[in-house]
């Protein structure tokens, strides 16, 4: 006959009857063990002994192992080494609402000493994040007991485990000091002849657009100046935006900060155009040199950008051997590096990551130029204040 315990007690005060101690658990391994434990309580103590020198880890591990062991013997009347996959699924639900309350939760959520008769394993229901953390710890316990030859299998290994992907580390971007070198190089381009002036203003405008807008090169080549538009926000301030058709034909609105609009006006004046674009104007965002108004190809835009990076790298390399590695890094840069740089610098400048996401088009927008919400106004203001180029 199985012995049912009425109330849970701490691990260090627990004395299990033979039919609940796990000596004959259904999941016990038949092979050679790597630990001397003969019962579940001894096996748990062997697992905890590994982290006894780290108090926080030890306390967390003991808490979760203790809760599961007590639930198994008190609630189910079976040893821990007989738990099945289905039992563990039921335990996960139990963590969200340990019932009966009087048995599992301390009165008023107070934390009583472990030797106090009023001690209980829980102070209240566990939040979803705490439930997940508990199951992670228990999965580690079961995996270790299997590896130690104590259990035949891990009942939690059948659960859907979300693989942890290491976030890719962005390396193709320019740190602020290298970005400064690029700006200095552009600002030092010759401007003696009309053609040199055209080349200078085009390079300055193109790098402004790619950096402040965080645009892909395809979003530059396939867009027109007529996609800039102005609306007043809720406080009556004029806000300029650039409508972009991005990857996967997803539309987004890019904040056109005051700094961007100043640079646009400078570029347009250098090309003999009115400072601000008119609605539906079909002038390409970036023009070829000379009188042509045809949009530049993607290859042409790439060539302009690569030549700027190469020139800045050559200038950096002239300072000596100490700058060679950084010059080589700069020489590898491309248009997409500017997009990564924009995202990195926005994040470094404490711009809300949700705003960075929307600026870069990592999520599609459901509004049009006519329906600007207050969230959009906040994104514009924050971007303008915290993401600057500062020529």
TrEMBL record:
Residues 38-146 form the Core-binding (CB) domain. Keywords: Cell cycle, Cell division, Chromosome partition, Cytoplasm, DNA integration, DNA recombination, DNA-binding. It holds the Pfam family Phage_integrase. Gene3D superfamilies: 1.10.150.130, Intergrase catalytic core. The keyword Cell cycle applies. Residues 169-385 form the Tyr recombinase domain. It comes from the Bacteria. Its main location: cytoplasm. GO terms for cellular component: cytoplasm. It is found in: Cytoplasm. The keyword RNA-binding does not apply. GO terms for biological process: cell division; chromosome segregation; DNA integration; DNA recombination. One of its GO terms (molecular function) is DNA binding. This is Site-specific recombinase XerD. The lineage of its organism: Bacteria, Pseudomonadati, Pseudomonadota, Betaproteobacteria, Burkholderiales.
């Amino acid at each position: 006959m199985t012995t049912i315990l009425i109330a849970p007690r701490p691990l260090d005060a627990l004395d299990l009857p033979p039919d609940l101690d796990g000596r004959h658990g259904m999941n016990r391994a038949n092979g050679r063990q790597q630990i001397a434990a003969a019962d579940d309580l001894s096996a748990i103590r062997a697992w905890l002994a590994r982290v006894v020198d780290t108090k926080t880890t030890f306390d967390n591990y003991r808490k979760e192992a203790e809760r599961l062991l007590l639930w198994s013997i008190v609630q189910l009347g079976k040893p821990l080494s007989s738990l099945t996959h289905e039992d563990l699924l039921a335990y996960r639900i139990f963590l969200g609402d340990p019932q009966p309350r009087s048995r599992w939760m301390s009165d008023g959520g107070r934390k009583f000493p472990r030797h106090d008769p009023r001690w209980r394993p829980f102070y209240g229901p566990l939040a979803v994040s705490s439930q997940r953390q508990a199951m992670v710890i228990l999965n580690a316990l079961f995996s270790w007991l299997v590896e130690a030859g104590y259990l035949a299998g891990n009942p939690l290994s059948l659960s859907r485990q979300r693989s942890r992907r290491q976030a890719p580390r962005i390396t193709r971007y320019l740190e602020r000091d290298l970005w400064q070198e690029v700006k200095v190089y552009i600002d030092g381009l010759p401007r003696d002849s009309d053609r040199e002036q055209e080349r200078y203003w085009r390079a300055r405008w193109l790098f402004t657009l790619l950096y402040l807008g965080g645009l892909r090169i395809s979003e530059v080549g396939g867009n027109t100046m007529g996609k800039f538009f102005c609306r007043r926000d809720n406080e009556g301030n004029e806000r300029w935006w650039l409508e972009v058709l991005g990857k996967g034909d997803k539309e987004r609105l890019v904040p056109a900060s005051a700094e961007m609009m100043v640079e646009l006006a400078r570029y347009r004046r250098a090309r003999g155009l009115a400072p601000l674009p008119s609605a539906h104007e079909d002038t390409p965002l970036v023009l070829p040199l000379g009188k042509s108004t045809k949009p530049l190809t993607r290859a042409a835009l790439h060539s302009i950008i690569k030549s700027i990076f190469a020139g800045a790298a050559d200038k950096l390399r002239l300072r000596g051997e100490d700058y060679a590695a950084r010059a080589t890094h700069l020489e590898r840069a491309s248009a997409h590096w500017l997009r990564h740089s924009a995202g990195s610098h926005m994040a470094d400048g404490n711009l809300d990551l949700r705003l960075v996401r929307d600026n870069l088009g990592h999520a599609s927008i459901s509004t049009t130029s006519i329906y600007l919400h207050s969230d959009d106004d906040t994104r514009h203001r924050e971007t303008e204040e915290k993401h600057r180029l500062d020529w």
